[in-house]
Design goal:
Elements (H helix, E strand, L loop, with lengths): L11 H4 L2 H13 L5 E2 L8 H6 L4 E2 L18 H15 L2
Parallel strand pairs: 1-2
């Protein structure tokens, strides 16, 4: 798993390039491991996470109202929207 330790609003792609992340994903998969990516990911990051080959995506804030992982609440509607985005990414 790759996640950001500092929760300052910058997401995973502010700290690592797609190429670096792809290398991690490929290396982990070569060892037979599953890969999770997280770190202030937003709904518009889901297609990229999918294209990088991650097995899991951590999107707590994106699933919450106001995209606020601390004061927001996870709602069915937000989760359904994220599922729809993942399914659309799978068709690409």
């Amino acid at each position: 798993m790759i996640d950001t330790a500092i929760k300052d609003g910058k997401n995973l792609f502010a700290f690592l390039t797609k190429s670096q992340i792809q290398g991690f994903v490929d290396s982990a998969h070569n060892y037979g491991l599953k890969v999770a990516l997280a770190g202030s990911l937003r709904e518009n990051d889901l297609p990229t996470v999918h294209n990088l080959g991650a097995d899991f995506a951590g999107l707590r804030g994106a699933a919450c109202t106001m995209s606020d992982r601390i004061n927001g609440q996870i709602t069915r509607e937000r989760v359904q929207k994220l599922v729809k985005i993942v399914r659309a990414s799978e068709k690409l």
